[in-house]
Amino acid sequence: MKINAIITGATGMVGEGVLLECLNHPDVEKVLVINRKPGGITHPKLKEIIHSDFFNLAPVETQLAGYNACFFCLGISSVGISNEEYRRITYDLTLNFGQVLARLNPEMTFCYVTGAGTDSSEQGSIAWARVKGATENALLHLFKNAYMFRPGFMKATPGQKNIKSYYKLIFWFYPVGRKLFPAGFCTLQEVGQTMIKAAGKGYSKKILEVKDIVALANS
């Protein structure tokens, strides 16, 4: 099955890594990225929409129909913001976007990047993990075909431009971490490959931990 994918967060490290995999993969026919600012990438498969308000998709809604996959890589850190603001961006914004896509493309496969340690019970002591868990649960209810990705430390793809400054200081640790703690380390190439495979062929689990991401990417 050819994949026509919408990608969010393509101006961030995770989204850019997933975008590069999609542009290079023969099963991906076309890609739509929705960015708040230009991403600076051109490709025959790629279309870009610049749109600043993800809480109001009405101005671009007609352009979101006709896609069979969404790779949702948009997200923020909980560090330095209130619990209310973190929930507004992580849960409310994601669900608003998802609800529009589910209405326009009911058979769509929705792949959501959450994180290792997400709390599916929504009852734990860590606020960000509860919010991520609530977002996962809502998306799994909203989409018939949905997969939650929980990567740990991710190695960037060679050539990426959108890399956080702290990553440049610690990327040297990746080979050591992957060898000693394989359940916590994967590459962005593996994340992108796994999303494409999940969208095209499905997967036996709805929540993919690092070991699932690595196994499916290399299958």
Characterise the protein shown here.
β1, α1 (13-24) and β2 (28-35) form a beta-alpha-beta unit. With 219 residues, this protein is α/β, with parallel strands linked by helices. The two termini are 18 Å apart. α1 (13-24) crosses α6 and α2 packs parallel to α3 (127-142). The chain is 39% helix and 19% strand. The protein is built from seven helices and nine strands, in the order βαβββαβαββααβαβα. The chain has one domain: 3-Layer(aba) Sandwich (Rossmann fold).
Helix/strand structural class: alpha/beta
Global Rg: 16 Å
Low-pLDDT residue intervals, each spanning 5 or more residues: none
Mean pLDDT metric? 95
Helix count, per DSSP? 7
Number of strands: 9
Overall helicity: 25-40%
Instruction: Please give the order of strands in the largest beta sheet.
Output: 3-2-1-4-5-6-9
- CATH topology title: Rossmann fold
Number of domains: 1
Mind telling me which CATH architecture this is? 3-Layer(aba) Sandwich
At the first level of CATH, what is the class?
Answer: Alpha Beta
End-to-end Cα distance, whole Å, is: 18 Å
- Strand-residue fraction? 15-25%
Based on Cα principal axes, name the global outline: globular
Index terms:
single chain, 219 residues, alpha/beta, Rossmann fold, seven-stranded parallel beta sheet, two-stranded parallel ribbon, 9 strands, 39% helix, globular
Short précis:
The chain is built from 7 helices and 9 strands; from the N terminus they run βαβββαβαββααβαβα. It has 219 residues and is of the alpha/beta class.
